[in-house]
Amino acid sequence: MNAAEETTGEDTPWGEVNPEAARRLLVAAVDAFAERGYHATTTRDIAGRAGMSPAALYIHFKTKEELLHRISKIGHERALYVLDSEADRDGTAAERLAGAVRSFVRWHAERHTTARVVQYELDALGEEHRTEIVALRRRSDAVVRRIIGEGVRDGEFDVPDVPGTTLAVLSLCIDVARWFNAQGSRTPDEVGELYADLVLRMVGARAASGQK
Amino acid sequence: MNAAEETTGEDTPWGEVNPEAARRLLVAAVDAFAERGYHATTTRDIAGRAGMSPAALYIHFKTKEELLHRISKIGHERALYVLDSEADRDGTAAERLAGAVRSFVRWHAERHTTARVVQYELDALGEEHRTEIVALRRRSDAVVRRIIGEGVRDGEFDVPDVPGTTLAVLSLCIDVARWFNAQGSRTPDEVGELYADLVLRMVGARAASGQK
DNA sequence: ACAACCCCTAAGCGCTTGCTCAGGTTCGGG
DNA sequence: CCCGAACCTGAGCAAGCGCTTAGGGGTTGT
């Protein structure tokens, strides 16, 4: 009924999480999980970072695991959206693959705290939640595999092992979340550019954007 | 004084860990850490897997963290050794790079439980131990960077960004520990072969091992 | 025979963990 | 002016944590 949302919800990083207090807790949890890992983070630490008492957490989330689940789900959906929207453009397979890798990597670098939680705390989820998330991840795999497959079909790419190469491409992108450091010398854009080029080489793209 | 070691110490996976009871505990810890992560693993769980009481652990190791440190140190040394011995062969830069990647990846796949602990539990180490391990990791980086640099110098490779490409190559190899599954369809040898080929493409190797 | 030694266990200590609950504050609507 | 809903806190519980301690068996050297 209330038509005015407290915060927009689509462009802001965690805008879909309401009310504001819940969002503060969730952001605090992302930071803490990324820094120390899920199991090494206490609910007191999360509440403390959000400027609340430990009990406040349980008004907005049933358990600590639900917090992780919401982070993981939203994070995966965002990453998949980023990948998908580049894959759906039109253009050669090489252009679409480069675009997808560039955006996906940039997302992992820019949002590397979120990405770290999303990519490396899967095992901390409960059975049910984990299988839900794994399904989302399979869709990322399918997106990349499709582009590579089309490139091969059109004679643009030279790839002996499509599933294997797909795996390697995604693995390369995901691992950015592990090593990327905001204080480091590379910007997310630079890393995205570098990785897009490397991936085009991996698939043996004939004419990388025209000629060469 | 006792000249006969209980176990040889060089070829067996954890042969250098003595006495046998300590090795059993350490192997149990590797399994547990790889499965659940360091912080989610209890000392009771480790001792239980080794068939001992919780107190037995503290006869052989001062703390739970010391266990992780010994695992991490030995693991890094082994991985570095694998990388180094391929890099020191003679041959073209492409041959050496391919050999190094093949062996390094094979190690991460075969020993993926150990590798997972080694690569993803660095933050759980204490300040002092972590800086010691980080030094070892920098040496791996130097090894790969040297080969790529030599390949560029000799005109074998076409690499615009040597440090960046080095980072990507190592990142690709390391991430094998995360996704590799012994029940999966690929053998460690196959993954090593695939990755060696992909890396040669990344560096724009002119003549990949002569012809083909 | 027996003391010295190593390796192990049963019991448990002090502390932190995830989580609960009774109660208090704030605020819009009747 | 008061009500009920939404939100938060202080205090604390049961369980589980890393680790310690006292002591018991087996093997060894003398």
From TrEMBL, chains A, B:
DNA-binding residue intervals: 42-61
Organism: Streptomyces durocortorensis
Source species, domain of life: Bacteria
Pfam families: TetR_C_24 (PF17932), TetR_N (PF00440)
Protein name: TetR family transcriptional regulator
InterPro entries tied to this protein: Homeodomain-like_sf, HTH-type_TetR-like_transc_reg, HTH_TetR, KstR2_TetR_C, Tet_transcr_reg_TetR-rel_C_sf
Keywords for the protein's UniProt record, in alphabetical order: DNA-binding
Residue intervals of the HTH tetR-type domain: 19-79
PANTHER family, A to Z: HTH-TYPE TRANSCRIPTIONAL REGULATOR RUTR, HTH-TYPE TRANSCRIPTIONAL REPRESSOR BDCR
